[in-house]
Amino acid sequence: MSSASTWEVPNADHPERRAILAAMTRVLAGTTNRKLTVKDLAEEAGLKRHHLVNKHTDLRDLFYAEVERSGVEREPAVVIRLRKEITELRDTVSKRNETIQELEAKNEQYAENLAVAIMRIRQLERDLAAAAARQSPSDEQQVPPPHGRNHLRSVPTGESGSW
């Protein structure tokens, strides 16, 4: 990029022209968020657009020539960088969405597998209960006698009035 010091322009010491040349340097270097337009150049220089359109037309023409010569996009470097970043972020989001869909599908399959396993466990529990019922001893043999102390309370005889 050219800089204000390398441009040969008449009356470069004039405050408006100095501001325009400095703004051109910044805008062409891409160090601002400005577009490569006369309107944005004027704003960067702190001037109204008509200063470039009507008064300093040689600087306007120089600006457009520098833009054309540089082959730079008419958008500032910051905007170009942000557009690239947005594209990369969209790619990242797209990949993550694909991953989410894959994980949701796996989750659905796991839920189905779990439901089948629960049904199988319940069936096995029913089968076990039925098999245990078929092999159960008679009602008398089902209740084992207590060990140690007599489990039945003594019935009061009525004489002592105690248990």
TrEMBL record:
Gene3D superfamilies in alphabetical order: Tetracycline Repressor, domain 2
Region (Disordered) residue spans: 129-163
Superkingdom per UniProt: Bacteria
Protein name, as recorded: TetR family transcriptional regulator
Native source species: Actinoplanes sichuanensis
